[in-house]
Design brief:
Elements (H helix, E strand, L loop, with lengths): L2 H17 L5 H18 L9 H5 L2 H13 L6 H14 L4 H6 L4 H15 L4 H6 L5 H16 L4 E2 L1 H11 L4 H5 L27 E2 L1 H12 L9 H11 L3 H8 L4 H11 L8
Parallel strand pairs: 1-2
Length: 274
């Protein structure tokens, strides 16, 4: 989700919390605080046909806010992003029943929080620039891999950690590809006790050269009309990477020709270039 869409979504949740009378003082105060910051910054600009509250009440109105605030780059203002995160933090304290009343699940709140965090953090310039182009399952994998990297005392996501995270998650349809590989061709899965921490990208600020090259290439490929997936990144890195995890694949006979054969066998439509 793009940051401006996340901001509008969070505002709408804050408004819904008040309408459903489930919000405590912290939610109300942070909601009013976010509105106040936006109004103060853009009060002299004719960027919205109605008050914020009225726009939040309908899908069309929310689309208008996204359009108008995108034009003035509201999503690039750190003050707005930080206040939006504060509002998310307080909404996350609501009970599951209260969250249900305003039409959202806890896992969706956590996803919104992760989206905001990735844009607030001064590092991660590549991830910031492409985050909204990534499939949610790839976002989850990168976030979990970042937790593992932090646990190991590293400030970057290595290819080995990314592969080990994918083995732990075993997401479809990548799981079908893994079934075609020798058992020891990939690193051992990361521990099951590792879970996503929305603050993780504050310390883990970069990716391995192989992953950086792959994500940069895939995100700039104009033929892509969909989100970048786990399987696209894995196949690209496995074919063209140069690090130890890729050399391990080669040791077990998983070379580019073998990878292409598995992709064809599974009927995947993945076009990656060196």
């Amino acid at each position: 989700m793009e940051p401006i869409t996340t901001i509008v979504t969070v505002l709408a949740l804050g408004a819904a919390s008040g309408l459903q009378s489930v919000a405590g003082k912290a939610v109300n105060d942070s909601y009013e605080g976010l509105k106040a910051i936006i109004k103060r910054r853009y009060q002299n600009l004719n960027i919205q046909p109605k008050p914020i509250e009225e726009n939040l009440n309908s899908e069309k109105g929310r689309e208008n806010l996204i359009k108008y605030w995108s034009e003035v780059k509201a999503d690039q203002k750190l003050e707005i992003l930080e206040q939006a995160k504060i509002l998310i933090d307080h909404i996350q304290t609501l009970s599951e029943a209260e969250l249900e009343e305003i039409g959202i699940k806890l896992e969706d709140i956590k996803a919104l929080k992760l989206n905001i965090t990735i844009y607030i953090n001064p590092g991660n310039s590549l991830l910031k620039s492409i985050w909204d182009k990534l499939d949610p399952s790839l976002q989850d994998a990168l976030a979990l891999a970042a937790v593992q990297a932090q646990r190991k005392g590293e400030n970057y996501i290595s290819t080995k950690i990314f592969f080990a995270t994918l083995r732990r998650l075993n997401p479809e349809p990548l799981s079908d590809f893994f079934n075609e590989l020798p058992t020891d061709a990939l690193p051992e899965p990361i521990s099951e006790d590792i879970s996503v921490d929305d603050k993780v990208f504050e310390k883990v600020q970069s990716l391995s050269p192989c992953m950086t090259k792959s994500l940069t290439k895939l995100s700039s490929n104009k033929t892509f009309r969909k989100k970048i997936t786990n399987e696209e990144v894995f196949v690209d890195v496995a074919k063209y990477g140069k690090g130890s995890s890729v050399r391990r694949l080669r040791t077990y006979g998983v070379d580019p020709k073998k990878i292409d054969s598995i992709v064809k066998q599974l009927g995947w439509n993945i076009a990656v270039e060196a």
